[in-house]
Specification:
Layout: E1 5-11, H1 15-25, E2 31-38, H2 45-58, E3 66-68, H3 82-85, H4 107-117, E4 123-127, H5 132-140, H6 144-147, E5 150-154, H7 170-174, H8 176-184, E6 189-192, H9 194-197, H10 204-211, H11 216-236, H12 246-253, E7 258-263, E8 265-267, E9 278-280, E10 292-298, H13 300-311
Helix pairs in contact: 1-2, 1-11, 1-12, 1-13, 4-5, 5-8, 10-11
This protein binds alpha-D-ribofuranose (RIB) and calcium ion.
Length: 314
Amino acid sequence: MPQPRKIIIDTDPGQDDAAAIMLALGSPEELDLLGITTVAGNVPLQLTQRNARIVCELSNRPDVKVFAGADRPVARPLVTAEHVHGKTGLDGPVLEEPRMALQAQHAVDFIVECVMTHEPGEVTLCTLGPLTNIALAFEKEPRIVARLHEIVMMGGGFFEGGNITPAAEFNIFVDPEAADRVLRAGVPIVMMPLDVTHKVLTLRRRVERIKAIGSRAAVAMAEMLEFFERFDIEKYGSDGGPLHDPTVVAYLLKPELFSGRDCNVEIEVASSLTVGMTVVDWWHVTDRKRNARVMRDIDAEGFFELLTERLARL
Ligand code: RIB
Ligand code: CA
């Protein structure tokens, strides 16, 4: 069995972030979670750092180091998504306040220290929210850019359009300047856009299978999904909502579930109409650098099989 892959999860929990964290914690043979860094996004930082600790305790992993990072984007006011995630960001189940401590170190300092103290190529960043912490870490210590193995990120949309505006996906829209810096930095990037995540819907039978696991973590997760999906069901008229963030962790565990191609991706930062749009040169009509592997398809049944099987281990 190869050594577990060392990862940092940067996140703004959010019910779908919680599913991604639980998927990672249910996969200790493959993933060594060095730390969870939190960022303002779905809800303010005070709540995302609280929520990350709640998810670790639900997963019986109060030992995981959780850090608080940026409480606002690098260059614009914070936009949040309580309309999707509820006022706590983890609405759905009745949850206790976390008992495990928040780490004193700032998330950006942790990212820099962690990447600089590991061998080059050892650490992978999994980003589930706005890219503020990552852009700040690159600015603080540019040497980490060349030391990272890769970034696997949930963000963007192309054929699928946007979800917070007609053109922009939420994680990119919240901090387009940060996303622009990260996409231009030169780190190998795997991108999970809405084109993929809108194909993994929390169908009733899928949520019931998770609930049937019966553990505290699984029942809480099912209740989170039952809350989280209502907004997208209403909006898209779909059976279930798109389970965005766990696609990032699933890619590390089973990349064969996904298909996509290397493309140039650039971020719109100026237009008031399309700010936050990920402009993906899918058909290679330009000679711009192919700076990201953009996923477009996923085996949805295989994804939920994996997620359910790993949740059952918590
Ligand atoms: O657009 C979906 C993304 O925005 C997900 O990461 C969700 O958690 C929110 O952060
Ligand atoms: Ca998220």
